[in-house]
């Protein structure tokens, strides 16, 4: 199984959310937390983001 890590610009494209909204929702526990990539770099596991998007779709219907 290949795990893909998305950086912030890709997460923004996938979700349509701004940087500030992403970090606000993380602090509220409503968005997947990023993982440390070393130094000040972070990324998100693509499957976590896809699962979050699926949940948003289900909740809106």
Write the layout of secondary structure elements.
Layout: E1 5-6, H1 8-15, H2 19-27, E2 35-38, E3 41-45, H3 46-60
Antiparallel strand pairs: 1-3, 2-3
Your description of this structure?
This protein has helices at residues 8-15, 19-27, 46-60; strands at 5-6, 35-38, 41-45. With 61 residues, the protein is α+β, with helices and mostly antiparallel strands. It has one domain: Recoverin, domain 1 (Orthogonal Bundle), CATH 1.10.238. It has a three-stranded antiparallel beta sheet. The longest helix is centred in the C-terminal third of the chain and has 15 residues, at 46-60. It starts with a strand and ends with a helix.
Sum up the structure in keywords:
61 residues; alpha+beta; 3 helices; globular
Unreliably modeled segments: none
Helix count from the secondary structure assignment = 3
What is the radius of gyration? 12 Å
Please state the structural category. alpha+beta
CATH top level assignment? Mainly Alpha
Mean pLDDT: 97
Shape: globular
CATH topology: Recoverin, domain 1
Proper CATH architecture: Orthogonal Bundle
In brief:
The chain is an alpha+beta fold. The chain has helices spanning 8-15, 19-27, 46-60, and strands at 5-6, 35-38, 41-45.
């Amino acid at each position: 199984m290949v795990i893909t890590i998305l950086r912030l610009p890709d997460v923004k494209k996938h979700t349509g959310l701004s940087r500030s909204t992403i970090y606000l929702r993380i602090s509220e526990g409503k968005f997947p937390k990023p993982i440390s990539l070393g130094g000040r770099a972070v990324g998100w596991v693509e499957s976590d983001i896809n699962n979050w998007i699926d949940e948003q779709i289900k909740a809106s219907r």
